[in-house]
Amino acid sequence: MHPTDFTLAGAVAALEEGVISAEELTRAHVEAVEALNPRLNALITVTADQAMEAARASDARRKRGEAGPLEGIPLAIKDLFCTEGVQTTAGSKILEGFIPPYESTVTSQLKRDGAVFLGKANLDEFAMGSSNLTSAYGGVLNPWSRRNDPDARLVPGGSSGGSAAAVAARMALGATGTDTGGSIRQPAAFCGIAGIKPTYGRCSRFGIVAYASSLDQAGPFGRTVEDCAILLRSMAGFDPKDSTSADRPVPDFAAACGRSVKGLRIGVPREYHMDGMPAEIEKLWRQGLDWLREAGAEIVDISLPHARYALPTYYIVAPAEASSNLARYDGVRFGKRVAEPNSDLRDLYERTRAAGFGAEVRRRIMIGTYVLSAGYYDAYYLKAQKVRALIARDFREAWSKVDAILAPATPSAAFAEGENSDDPVQMYLNDVFTVTANLAGLPGLSVPAGLDPQGLPLGLQVLGRPFDEETVFAVGAALERAADFRALPGMRAGA
Amino acid sequence: MSLDTATVRRVAALARIRLEEEEVARVQGELNGILGWIEQLQAVNTDGIEPMSGGTPEGIAAMPLRDDVVTDGGQAAKILANAPDSEGEYFSVPKVVE
Asked: What's the domain range around A136?
């Protein structure tokens, strides 16, 4: 067996048993990165030398009996997490060459637990996108391809497209992502892997480049639900440096993957049956419900009457927060500066931001600036915050009837570069099933569950109560067992 | 509500993003497309609804307060390390006061 074929859990066991060393495991992944990254463009920065050094240090720790829970596990880190001494770009030209002098809390916890970082994964610029095509460092190729059109360049989804592609192509055993409107769950579904956005507050946002602070959450990608559970345990936990991080214990999420779903009540939101939804998505959803029913769960119809307003609500709240968060990129303290010899300070700001930000980021900053501007605040931003409260209330009412909710992860399989790109709103519709969880602060897990007629992966999504990721993992693992998803992308290490 | 070109220019100026004259029409079209789409929120009855201002789900403990004391500092070199231009322990910008 090639070392890149391990699941993360399998690699943890193999390292413990001494079947493989961290150095051998990391070398196999570094070689996979070297072989595949030129085609996939999944990593913006490759830190091969640091990875090999970290792997040797990991083997030494194990020898001393100091192995952590992720000891020697090679991961890809979304290039939105600040990593001390390693360039962090957020997929933007405005941060090209930015070397953080500090480490994000999530990545420092992964390091604390022994993980090895292979490099920084590509993403939509400032995590704004659903295709990875807004990255200033080029798009990422999805390692899957269409059966009848193998040359079409499919997107991996976004914004965490590089993370998802790297895990699917077996360049890394797992990866970090962030999810503001679906940026973990949609690329996980497009790339045939698992990914979870935990409850808002479960992971610290300290050191993660901010997009929309009331929606952003970090979470892991893995090739199995259990792999996500193992990673999330290391990533999660209270951090005094993030006032919104939750001061509550972190459960053993991996143990929850083995829980039975017998007797659980699974909600089916009737509003998620949408006109024009592809038949294969509807079919997979029904199949998922059948699997859970066979495993002993009870299926309950529920209503989320305001869910249809989630996307327009998101496209007020997120740009508003982004316009405020991204005000810091001013060409003065860090990042790119663009100025003419006779530029005054204001001209320096305006030239720097026009040249440093890509079109989608500029668009969202301007929408956010407008909805927050005097005279329009009540009509747009305040209104959106009230609709957001109604969306959250719909879920609270649902939790009195059900323990978890099952929905599709995305309205389609991966699309090709160039599709969905003429109209920004068309691209935004990709997040129709995922964005509600961000607005309500809930955990959501995407699980690969089937293939479309073109042989592309499709995902199901499990939503849960706040801080009840354990039930989400239990339901996700039950779906995974029933689906027995074994299809593999054409482009992968060892293939 | 539809933005005219003067409003598009004003929003770009507020956002401190330079907008070239030839870009105005395209940006106006894109922004109006998005604003037209989010207009549907006006149909939702939100009478008496308290706005949700953060991401923390209701019923979860509010943000904690900490003592108002200095917890960090004395790292000028680190803070300046990524500056495009600096002098001594200061960020440099074009002259703002004559």
From this structure: 3-258+478-483
